[in-house]
Amino acid sequence: AQSVTQLGSHVSVSEGALVLLRCNYSSSVPPYLFWYVQYPNQGLQLLLKYTSAATLVKGINGFEAEFKKSETSFHLTKPSAHMSDAAEYFCAVSDRTDTDKLIFGTGTRLQVFP
Amino acid sequence: ETGVTQTPRHLVMGMTNKKSLKCEQHLGHNAMYWYKQSAKKPLELMFVYNFKEQTENNSVPSRFSPECPNSSHLFLHLHTLQPEDSALYLCASSPGQGFYEQYFGPGTRLTVT
User: Fold this and answer.
1) How far apart are CA A73 and CA B73, in angstroms?
2) Which residues touch A79 (CB under 8 Å, ≥6 apart)?
3) Using an 8 Å Cβ cutoff, are A104 and A4 in contact?
4) Alpha-carbon gap, residue A39 to B92, rounded angstroms
5) How many Cα atoms are found within 13 Å in the side-chain-facing hemisphere of A24?
6) Which of A12, B33, B69, B80 is 20 to 30 A away from residue A108, measured at CA?
7) Each residue of B78-94: pLDDT tens digit?
8) Dihedrals φ, ψ of A60, to 5°?
9) Min CA distance, A79 vs chain B (Å)?
10) Chain B residues contacting A, CB < 8 Å?
11) Which residues pair with B4 in a beta bridge?
């Protein structure tokens, strides 16, 4: 069965600093991987997805993530944080053999300080 | 309207009330989902509908009753809820057929008193 681990429930960075949010997955088959962002009082918005094409995936708002099979990781990065990036971020995995479901991590709350 | 819409956005109900949450997707998708999001807990998948047929029921108590009359609409009927059912209820849709990303509505914040 698939699972997703997000290391660090809270991450704080200064505006302009590098953002790194960690996600490790466990899957018996090559997975599809996703990052979502949730702003206060809103639903989840898809940031980017990995579906076995390029291992470096670019998403919206300047975010990108790299699929590393050897490390079973899919970390989310952004070179320079902006105040508007403050939100909760969720990593999710889908098993290609069970296409109905996404398994979500517990989320990482990103704070950005001026 | 675009994307996935949910009504109402906020709902307060007593434990003896009956209410319904509504979700509508304007994306032409074939699959729809209900999730429960509680504070400090992972997102919990409740129900999955694919082409209007329920394909997943994650051991959800019977006081939650889903209904999917067509591929665009999804309801969650609520009755005799408990205070621990207070949460954000999120609806999502997915294209299906090899495309797995899900698109979420803004959620209904439910408070059970």
Assistant:
1) 36
2) A18, A62
3) yes
4) 16
5) 6
6) B33
7) 999 999 999 999 999 99
8) -80, 165
9) 25
10) 4, 6, 31, 41-43, 45, 48, 50, 55-56, 90, 92, 96, 98, 100-107, 109
11) B25
